[in-house]
Write a structure and sequence with these properties.
This protein has 13 helices and nine strands. It has 409 residues and is an alpha/beta fold. α6 runs parallel beside α8 and α8 runs parallel beside α11.
């Protein structure tokens, strides 16, 4: 017999279910999905920096954008960015996209309620446009009033991301209060994991070549059509360790359906070794694409943020996986995981290329940094030696060099 709870989740039983039982199920459902774990945990300590002010005038160069200069925030990607199941503890929460707590774009409450990239930026600019305000239901049509500027779509592969970008551009151009030409925008993009999950189903369609082709096409579209924009491209994470995230539950069985190429192969099989190599190749090719000035101009930059490149699942002191970071499907992150993703991304944005932190494990909480006083701008150039100027003391070597020049005159 089929019973639908809140018109969203359907429960199959062999026998009739009385009203009292259905009400009990609804209570469990409400507690799990709407109980909002993040509403009940203690508030995070305030985060303040010595300089949280905008530039004296609106910057015209992408190399001189401070956090408080950013007026618009947006996100592209897949179910990790829609935050599917992120605030639930049972399988009932899986169809729900908790966009309001998504690591890169969630706008629930304040930084002290839940740490997201958007909520950190809101500390610098409370009038920030774009944070996601509420959750959505996977597969149901949504509006920008529900999603904010979270244009990610659960289940999307890299070949779909250009459609998200077109939707984003059209929304930016028509959104009330957004100055498309003058407002500085930060767009965060993490996509490619579903390509790896689907690789064994079509090795040509989901090949590294096609991944890079789709990424190049998507980034070209943004560079050619969106002014005053900084794009964070977050390096995809190593996926093999996710095989260790297991519970004896129905939810964990979902792994086998939505990431079968990763979960089903035997541990030392040729198929698994090939997939691991493909994962690394995606990372290598993306790094090669973005460690150049291919996507850089005066008012636009794409920056590879590599903090997830070598990350491993969080573990408890006994060595077992810390399941508090993972949703009921044993694959996606809970709010706890999203907060660490947000902090890692923020930190990378204020670290130069070659000096960006790479998280080894989320077992150790990421400590949020302030924009450095000597370089209060978001780092945007792909080369370390050509970013915005840093204040440096007049060195003895410089003095000697100048004296040598005068001696020659």
């Amino acid at each position: 017999m089929l019973h639908c709870v809140l018109f969203a989740v359907c429960i199959f039983t062999r026998y009739p279910v009385d009203a009292q039982t259905l009400n009990e199920v609804k209570d469990i459902f409400n507690q799990d999905v709407f109980g909002a774990d993040f509403l009940q945990h203690r508030l995070h300590p305030p985060f303040t920096c010595s300089d949280m002010s905008p530039s004296p005038t609106v910057p015209t160069s992408v190399e001189f954008v401070k956090a408080a200069d950013v007026k618009v925030i947006a996100a592209l990607g897949d179910s990790l960015t829609t935050a599917i199941g992120a605030n639930g503890s049972t399988i009932l929460s899986i169809p729900f996209e908790f966009r309001q707590v998504s690591w890169s774009i969630g706008g629930y409450g304040t930084y002290q309620n839940v740490i997201t990239l958007a909520n950190i930026f809101k500390l610098f600019n409370p009038k920030l446009l774009g944070p996601s305000p509420v959750m959505t239901f996977h597969g149901r049509p949504t509006t920008v009033n529900e999603t904010g500027f979270n244009f990610a779509v659960t289940g999307h592969n890299t070949l779909n991301v250009s459609d998200q970008i077109r939707h984003m551009i059209d929304t930016f151009k028509s959104y009330p209060g957004l100055n498309f030409q003058k407002d500085w925008k930060v767009v965060t993009m993490l996509i490619g994991m579903n390509d790896i999950c689907d690789y064994c189903k079509d090795k040509t369609l989901f090949s590294p070549d096609n991944f890079i082709h789709s990424m190049t096409e998507a980034l070209d579209m943004m560079m050619n059509e969106i002014p005053r924009t900084i794009v964070n491209v977050v390096q995809i994470l190593p996926m093999k360790p996710l095989r260790e995230v297991q519970r004896p539950s129905l939810g964990c069985q979902l792994q086998k359906s939505f990431c079968s190429c990763l979960v089903r192969p035997e541990e030392n099989s040729t198929e698994l070794k090939e997939l691991v190599e493909i994962n690394y190749e995606f990372q290598r090719r993306l790094e090669k694409l973005l460690h150049s000035d291919r996507f850089f101009k005066k008012d636009f930059a794409v920056v590879l943020q590599p903090y997830l490149e070598n990350s491993k699942p969080p573990r408890l002191p006994d060595g077992s996986i810390d399941l508090s970071f993972f949703t009921a499907d044993c694959f996606h992150f809970t709010v706890k995981g999203h907060e660490e993703l947000a902090k890692g991304l923020w930190n990378n944005m204020f670290q130069p290329v070659g000096e960006k932190d790479k998280i080894k494990t989320f077992s150790d909480p990421v400590k949020l940094i302030c924009p450095p006083k000597e370089h209060p701008y978001i780092y945007t150039r792909p080369r370390v030696d050509s970013s915005a100027p840093t204040l440096r003391p007049f060195s003895v070597l410089t003095l000697i060099s100048l004296l040598a020049v005068f001696h020659e005159l």
